[in-house]
Amino acid sequence: MATTSQAQSVREQRFARALDREVAPLWHDRFARLIYRHLPRDADLFTLDVHCGPGRTTVELLERLGSGSRVLALEPDAALRTLAKARMRPEWKGRVYLKDGALTDVVGMGADTYDLVIANLVLGEVQSFREALREILRVTKAGGYVLATLPMAGTWTEVEDLFREVLADAELPDAARRLRHLARLRPTGHDLARAIVDLGVGPDHFVIEQERSSLLFASGREFLFSPVIEHGPLRAWKAILGAHTKPQELFWKLKESIDAYYSTSVFSVTVALGVLVIRVPEPGAAGAHAAAETAGEYWRRYPELDAVFGRAERAERGEGEEDIDIDLELELEEPEPDDDDEAAAAEAGEGLPPPTSPPPSASASSMTMSAEDEAIFAKLDHGQGHGENNAELDALLDQVLEFAKPQDEIEELDDNELEELVPDEEIRRPGETLKRIKSLLPPPPVIPPPLPGRKGGS
């Protein structure tokens, strides 16, 4: 029994070291840098670091915040907490507290407790995104900040597109459906904005930033055996297969697909990094537009963009529109008009009818939809949700794309628009080319007959 527990402890320590040395620099630290941009400088804040891992983010918080700041770091893994404790400096004693805990333990914390809550790659790993964010906002003081990162829609797109082809070839529709559902768990910016507004945070009190990054791999084998993949999305891709008898065969086909598609280049995988910057509003100030609000502070860094994109919001609030002065500095050299040319143009225009607008194009008038197509697109316009049972919608799309017939009203060329044939021009037919080539070649050599009395010319 003791041997089993010791072996398990050794495996946990190896996993923690691999996560700290090989995974975190490529994955966690990339997202954490988005958080560091928005940290209040030299401010004494009581901070909660949810799932601190090996303590890399916690160390940055203690270095960047004020000397009077305190940090409570939660981490459920004992081996990772050990690595985090080894990173703490002696001068930070009394400022940092490492505790065994996870995101679920935030539910039992008191409301309005922390000035700053950090959640690096926490919200993207839970399906109940809104409930988790609601609890984080609840424990944050009014006027405090929530900084959270997560992978956005578009992450792992290249891999999952190839994996979807492998599942389709293996005739595993359930696994393909679960793969699509897994991709939908990575939200878009609009999904995040709607979720935050539904939780009572006004649009002026949060900002969502997105960045595109890439992970490069030399081959499919290097990709599948990379620690950042093995300890990351590969676990989810294995889970969607369910009780498949030969998962190794499917991932071998995925490796072959990667090597085939990217045989002449490196395998570049997209990572969409997202960060939420939320300023918890004061009670009753969810819709206020004050100078200290988060969105206002952010957009004031880009006044030209604020003038362009903020006009609709200012119009809704009844504020006057600002004049947008955009100097394109285009220097167009136009010829100076001549008095004689103007007089000639005026005389030529006398007695002519006013110009008429050109007739509408065929795409706007003559192209009409059949009754069957109208019925199909009427169903598409209803906007079905991202449910799992979209087989009817997929069938309709396939029907539209595969069986769409050309329209009857097709503009045909008139006989006068065809190219005229010049009667005097010599016509060279395809069969005459070989004759001309043979006429230019020298005659074949004449071989004399063999001498009498000799067979075969010997």
Short account of what is shown:
With 458 residues, the protein is of the alpha/beta class. The protein has helices at 2-23, 28-36, 56-64, 78-87, 129-138, 157-169, 173-184, 189-198, 220-224, 227-230, 233-239, 247-261, 294-299, 303-309, 311-316, 339-349, 371-380, 391-402, 432-440; strands spanning 46-50, 70-74, 96-99, 114-120, 140-151, 206-217, 267-279.
**What is the succession of H and E elements?**
HHEHEHEEHEHHHEHHHHEHHHHHHH
Radius of gyration: 35 Å
The number of helices is: 19
- pLDDT average, as an integer? 78
**CATH topology (level 3) name of the domain at 1-151:** Rossmann fold
* CATH C-level category of the domain at 1-151: Alpha Beta
Number of strands: 7
Main sheet record:
7 strands, mixed
Fold topology:
Blueprint: H1 2-23, H2 28-36, E1 46-50, H3 56-64, E2 70-74, H4 78-87, E3 96-99, E4 114-120, H5 129-138, E5 140-151, H6 157-169, H7 173-184, H8 189-198, E6 206-217, H9 220-224, H10 227-230, H11 233-239, H12 247-261, E7 267-279, H13 294-299, H14 303-309, H15 311-316, H16 339-349, H17 371-380, H18 391-402, H19 432-440
Parallel strand pairs: 1-2, 1-4, 2-3, 4-5
Antiparallel strand pairs: 5-7, 6-7
Can you offer a commentary on this structure?
With 458 residues, the chain is of the alpha/beta class. It has a domain at 1-151: 3-Layer(aba) Sandwich (Rossmann fold), CATH 3.40.50.150. Helix content is 41%, strand content 13%. It has 19 helices and seven strands. The protein has a seven-stranded mixed β-sheet with strand order 3-2-1-4-5-7-6, with helices on both faces. Helix 6 (157-169) runs antiparallel to helix 7. The longest helix is centred in the first third of the chain and has 22 residues, at 2-23.
